[in-house]
Specification:
This protein is an alpha+beta fold and about 230 residues long. It contains six helices and 13 strands.
Length: about 230
């Protein structure tokens, strides 16, 4: 494994920051100063500032994200992030995928880069289901443009699933399942057909749900759930 990736996997810092540590001579491998681009194996002894580091077991969490939190590790404007909802000793964990500031619901956080890559790579078409509440009414046939794909500003969305789950004169609730994750995609999809989204909540990734998790709460994923996510 490349040394900067090894150090990042150990929770030392990001790969770029680890490159800086190596360049500053603060990292040794088997007692010798490390060089950029070197590979390390399981028998190598790696020290940073004289302290040995080793690979940590990956951690996996599911969080019911409330509104008003960024899906980020930190924010240069001082806004709250989803990391503020996690245990203080959780380590270098990060959220997978987008769930914007005004949206809520299911968010997976992990230290596992391979899982993050799998769930976010466009070619894997991982299904994500949202509860969408719009102002006013719409018919099932009115959702056909959403299902077929709409232009959201120079990009036509992929085909998706959508159906009404509740409606009255004031609002309509819809379940929408998409397999991509463009910035504010669902909000833009409904804006394209003249509808305003007043609530957006991710309720499923594949068949993984928020069952039993109150808003703002989290729990660890089971090994079986992690294995399932890798099959999506």
């Amino acid at each position: 494994m490349r040394l900067n990736k090894f150090l990042a996997s150990c929770g030392v810092a990001s790969r770029r920051e680890c490159d800086n540590l190596i360049g500053q001579g603060r990292v040794t491998v088997n007692g010798k100063p490390a060089t950029l681009g070197v590979d390390v194996g399981g028998d190598d002894k790696v020290l940073v500032d004289g302290r040995e580091v080793s690979l940590k077991k990956n951690e996996y969490y599911i969080l019911n994200k409330p509104k008003g939190y960024l899906s980020a590790v930190k924010d240069d404007k001082g806004r709250k992030t989803v990391i503020d909802l996690m245990p203080r000793d959780v380590g270098r964990i990060y959220p997978i995928g987008r769930l914007d500031y005004d949206s809520e619901g299911l968010l997976i956080l992990t230290t596992d880069g391979a899982l993050a890559q799998h769930l976010t790579h466009p070619s894997n078409n991982v299904p994500k289901t949202y509860l969408v509440k719009i102002e006013g009414t719409i018919t099932e046939s009115g959702l056909n443009p959403i299902r077929s794909g709409v232009d959201i500003g120079g990009y036509v969305t992929k085909k998706c699933k959508a159906h009404i789950v509740e409606t009255n004169k004031e609002y309509t609730k819809i379940h929408v399942t998409i397999t991509e994750g463009k910035n504010r995609e669902i909000r833009k999809m409904f804006e394209a057909i003249g509808k305003q989204v007043s609530l957006l909540k991710r309720i499923k990734v594949g068949e993984l749900t928020l069952r039993g998790l109150d808003r703002g709460c989290y729990r660890k994923l089971t090994p079986q759930e992690v294995a399932y996510l890798m099959t999506l």
